[in-house]
Amino acid sequence: MLPVTPQPARFIDPLSDFGFKRLFGSEPNKEILIDFLNQLFKGQKVIRDLTYNSTEKYGDDEQSKKVVFDLFCTCDNDEQIIVEMQRAEQPYYKERGVFYTARAISEQLPKGRKSWNYALKEVYLVALLEFEIETGKEDYLHDYCLTDRATGEIFYDKLGFKFIELPKFTKGEHQLETDLDRWLFLLKNLSRMDKIPVFLRKKVFQKVFRIAEISNLTKEERMFLQTKEQIELDYQSSLELAAKRAAEKAAAKARLESAEKAVRNMILRNYSDKEICEVQEVTPDYVTRIRQAIKSEIALNK
Asked: What does the domain layout of the chain look like in residue ranges?
């Protein structure tokens, strides 16, 4: 039987850096991001228009860390929204989110003014994550703000965090109930699709498919995409190799510790060196070193 040759992808991966910014970061196609955000906010706010801002934010001096957002928008009601797509797991992602919003807030300080009444604009972080964060919840969607610990009453409603843990979103096509469900299903599965499903015939989804179709890319865009994909594959391969070597090193260490423990037990039970070497398959020199270590430990404890 002849091997099956994998078919080339028809659509770009919207969760890659290239795909995410192509779909959500284009001024002519900003209705895509607007629709996604409106489905996510579920009436909490309605965004009718937005403007893309510079994604690079600098501190007040040369020592301050520069922050680069994936997307940073100002909406028609003047609220600011940072939109992030994060593939690689980060242990302090919640702290990173707080840092990002803090930088966006500090940017609102008017330069050169001696007085200011602290009338802050609303700032939100929307984070699409391809890993799970420590929330203690099974839900894939998390909505956080500043609240009173005792009562749960909202203390400040102009700062919010929305985390979407994509690995926890496991709905199949027949389980999709809302447009947000359809959005998340599309983001997770677009790169594996070879045709447009009937349940994604909404106008904005049709536009996503059109923009994401690889055949619609320019020659330069396709070359750039191939380069980015190769870099990501190389990076993933290096991570897998590092993980494999770490696992092998840990297993070897565990075997050594287990062997040492077994030899120690036999020494303490007065087995001869010859018996220990035969049972544990170690050299006489190894047994001698363990005996000397035991004597030193006993001497120190006297």
From this structure: 17-109+117-216, 255-301
**pTM of model > 0.85:** no
pLDDT band at 131 (very low <50, low <70, confident <90, very high): very high
Residue type, 169: F
Structural contact between residues 61 and 93, judged by C-beta atoms closer than 8 angstroms: no
Q: What is the mean pLDDT of the segment spanning 135-159?
A: 92
